[in-house]
Write a structure and sequence with these properties.
CATH class of one domain: Mainly Beta
Number of helices: 2
Radius of gyration: 34 Å
Order of helices and strands: EEEEEEEEEEEEEEEEEEEEEEEEEEEEHH
Largest sheet: 5 strands, antiparallel
Structural class: mainly beta
Helix content: 10-25%
Mean pLDDT: 81
Distance between the termini: 93 Å
CATH superfamily of one domain: TolB, C-terminal domain
Strand order of the largest sheet: 1-25-24-23-22
Low-confidence stretches: 6-15, 297-342, 382-401
Number of strands: 28
CATH topology of one domain: Neuraminidase
């Protein structure tokens, strides 16, 4: 288990808390094959990570390469040489389900969309509104792109094809405003936004409204954020090289710390959650640490009243009088014959089914009788009509007179 610190004793607690366990460390991998020969290549300075199933995508700013690592066969592959593709260092990556991916290039004010083989599909840019993109994510629920702009400190909303739709938030220190955005992601509660100053972690609704602000004074300098399907949020803190775990905005625990050993970090520049695992970029240690996420039920103390020694399990009248004062006596435990109970349920269900069938037959008989009666009326000769002089005057309800 990774080193950790618990939540403040005076703070709020939740019925469940999250635990992270060390699972695997990637500091590189084997390139090549049987014909060309295999060699082990180490990461130089990884900065961004994304994962889909067995495939882990790593942006190595030191080598200026985008790698794809196959966990199932321990094979490393170069997807793209970033030299000449981006104007500067990639600040974020997002990988779709089909393994196409987005790269954020702040220096050129663009977000680049490539297919799984590294061929450019489209360029997302807006010279008036997108000045310095710093983070990107895809909102699967709404089918749209969210790009955080570090110049105006807002979140631009684009269609999947790159048309600007609107904006979420603005610069400021109040709820729903940001100052120095560092990362964004989406989850069940909405859009999670981390910022260097002010309200450091906030949740925004998909309609642009402010939903929640994480417990204050828990994260000093957030760099990355990831959210699992249970709405647990993981935030990396640059100050102490830790991963802070939150549930419903409440701080639960702090994982890791500064160092180069297992479960220790030097600059956690990115986080990504996929399939029960949290991928953390341990940038200055030149590696990706993969942590297993496990839900742990909170222990609830249960007060039990012991039975007397060699008790048969049936509480006698005398034993009831000896229970603790102010407490109600325990009810007698009656053994249940499961086979008998099941048989009773089946018999009851059978009786209800027979009643329903009888009601259905009665309804069908009534319907047939009504149908025959209607047909009989249609076959009768028309009755002779009285002469007009014998009929009384009938007012016309539709007449306006």
């Amino acid at each position: 288990m990774l080193s950790r610190e618990g939540a403040p004793s005076g703070g709020k607690t939740t019925p469940k808390h999250q635990m992270l366990y060390g699972w695997r460390t990637l500091d590189g991998g084997f390139e090549g094959g049987a014909l060309t020969g295999r060699k082990y290549v180490r990461f130089v300075r990884p900065v961004q990570v994304a994962a889909r199933g067995n495939f882990v995508f790593v942006v190595d700013a030191g080598a200026q390469l985008l790698y794809r690592y196959d966990l199932s066969i321990d094979q490393l592959e170069v997807v793209m040489d970033l030299k000449g593709v981006t104007a500067g260092e990639v600040s974020d990556i997002y990988v779709y389900q089909d393994h196409s991916f987005l790269l954020v290039d702040p220096d050129s004010a663009r977000v680049l969309h490539f297919n799984r083989n590294g061929r450019l599909i489209r360029v997302i840019e807006d010279s008036l509104n997108l000045i310095r993109p710093v983070a990107v994510t895809y909102d699967e629920q709404m089918g749209r792109l969210l790009i955080a702009d570090g110049s105006s400190d807002d979140i631009l909303v684009f269609t999947s094809t790159g048309q600007l739709q609107g904006v979420i938030g603005s610069r400021g220190l109040s709820d729903g405003r940001f100052l120095n955005i560092t990362a964004i992601t989406t989850g069940g509660a909405g859009i999670y936004v981390t910022a260097r100053l002010g309200h450091r972690v906030q949740v925004m609704g998909r309609d642009g409204s402010h939903v929640d602000t994480f417990q204050p004074d828990t994260v000093v300098f957030p760099l990355a954020v990831a959210v699992d399907r249970g709405l647990n949020a993981f935030v990396s803190d640059y100050l102490d090289n830790s991963i802070k775990v939150f549930r419903d905005g409440l701080f639960l625990e702090s994982i890791g710390g500064s160092g180069s050993g297992s479960g220790r970090f030097k600059l956690i520049s990115d986080l990504w959650y996929d399939g029960g695992f949290l991928y953390a970029v341990d940038s200055l240690n030149g590696r990706i640490q993969i942590l297993r996420v496990e839900m742990v039920e909170a222990e609830v103390p249960v007060e039990m009243v012991p039975l007397p020694a060699e008790s048969s399990g049936v509480v006698t009248e005398g034993e009831r009088d000896n229970t603790l004062a102010g407490e109600e006596a325990l009810p007698e435990t009656v053994p249940v014959d499961e086979s008998q109970s099941t048989q009773q349920v089946l018999e009851t269900a059978q009786d209800e089914l027979e009643k329903l069938q009888a009601e259905l037959e009665n309804a069908r008989a009534e319907l047939e009788a009504a149908k025959e009666k209607q047909e009989g009326k249609a076959q009768l000769p028309d009755a002779p009509q009285p002469a007009p002089s014998q009929m009384g005057a009938t007012p016309d309800l539709n007449s306006q007179e």
